[in-house]
Amino acid sequence: MDVAVDLPTAQRRAMCALAGREMRRVLSLWTQTLLPPALSGVVFLAVFGGALGDRLDVGGVDYLRFILPGLLVMTVAGQAFANNSTSLFQAKNEGYIEDVLSSPLRPWQLLIGYMSGGLLRGWLAALALGLLAWPFAGGMERPAVTVAALLITGVIFAVLGVITGMWADTFDQHSFVANVLITPLALVAGVFYAVNRLAEPWQTLTYFDPIFYLVDVTRYGYVGVQETAGWAALTVAVIAAAGLFAVAVALLERGWRLKP
Amino acid sequence: MTNDQERTHAALWAAGVHKTYAEGTRALRGLSLHVPAGCFFGLLGPNGSGKSTLIGMISGLVRASAGDVFVFGHDVVAQAPQARLQVGVAPQDVHLDRFLTTREVLVYHGRYFGMARTQSTRRADELLASFDLTDKAHVKPNRLSGGMRRRLLIARALVHRPRLLILDEPTAGVDLQLRRELWSYVRSLHREHDTTVLLTTHYLEEAEELCERVGFIRDGRLLDEGSVPELIRRHGGGDLEAAYTEAMR
């Protein structure tokens, strides 16, 4: 190398470079990556919160305020996932992933590098939505809980996006996970209604939806209302994030669907 | 020299390497190859003989089914990061990041290999000038001609000043003038910086002109290896092409 550096320094620089490349991609394509999710969230708020809100009872909470935390979770989850699955799928499909696979990056560093873009996209889109909604929905009851829940949501779905990008060989496979798993699970996770008002078996079935817990704990932070034990849900989410991270690192270590 | 010493001193040391792909293709069948440090080494063989598979293993893109590969004493599996820092590869197929400009392709590559941003940028500008690509610095690679993309791939492989430069058919589809220019550049790099070069090519005159040692590979095995005069002497014929043809029979 030009100037001799120790391996950890070289690897840290490489990870920062990959993270920088991923984040730059998000910012340079902001009309595709940041604007649409923020606008979609605002439209949901306007339609459900503004037009229908007066007719819906969610336990005495203002309806617009009730649905905002769920929309923030949907935004972070959807954008973190979509960004990373697309970026990795493109890099793999077009072959330029070889540039980083042949670099001295360790698997966990490769994962963090690729996650960075999705995390930035999810959190920035949610921040934009939150700021736009703030004058109408009001502030957070427990900001630390809300922020923690959205951070964990970002990590979980950023990792899932990387795994999906590694797995997908075709654009159909790539879209399948988002369209058939994530979007439906998000829509039935109690974003727009109070789950404890559902009839059986729908109420029990909702408890099997992992996104429900992320919505619930975020709502607890934002509104102060919860349907489950909020801290337990957050703890499980942290464990899930750590578990998924470990799985993704193991897959990258093996070169799963990346190296013949 | 013992095996351990050989492994440490060789730029590339591969022993008993096998590779069977998932669909059943046996690309390498016990290949063993030693490339001394500082050598300009040519690896010649027909399509499908295993050259690109071996290169993929050296650069960490292909997993070996069995056998050992060391780069300057570093195991490419157990010490992958250390081994990869020593290697620069200009691949046969052109895969360039379409979100980056020509200059950024080089700068990011340097940073992926541990260079600081300022060092990498300076080095990128040097290489753009050396490969006559300065006026294309801010153009996306998909707007470059085939010859320019080929030059960019070689420049990219050189950004982090690798000790082992691997050129996988670098002059395929390149016109004669550019081919001569590339030869001249790679030769001076080899002489002035003592860079070990592993070249695969189908142009035998290229190997004869450039390489100090040549290996013949077929069906995933090394058939023979030596200097060009040694190979001609052992296989007959008046030049490398005749010796190669004879060895492949």
Could you list some keywords that capture this structure?
heterodimer, A: 260 residues, mainly alpha, 11 helices, elongated, B: 249 residues, alpha/beta, Rossmann fold, six-stranded mixed sheet, four-stranded antiparallel sheet, 10 helices, globular
Question: What does the secondary structure layout of this molecule look like, with pairings?
Answer:
The complex is a heterodimer of chains A (260) and B (249).
Chain A: H1 7-28, H2 30-33, H3 35-52, H4 63-94, H5 98-101, H6 107-137, H7 143-167, H8 171-187, H9 202-206, H10 210-223, H11 230-254
Helix pairs in contact in A: 1-6, 3-4, 3-6, 4-6, 4-7, 4-8, 4-10, 6-7, 6-11, 7-10, 7-11, 10-11
Chain B: H1 3-9, E1 10-20, E2 26-36, E3 40-44, H2 51-58, E4 66-71, E5 74-75, H3 80-85, E6 87-90, H4 102-112, H5 117-130, H6 146-158, E7 164-168, H7 176-193, E8 196-200, H8 204-210, E9 213-218, E10 221-226, H9 228-235, H10 240-248
Parallel strand pairs in B: 3-8, 3-9, 6-7, 7-8
Antiparallel strand pairs in B: 1-2, 1-4, 4-5, 9-10
Helix pairs in contact in B: 4-5, 4-6, 9-10
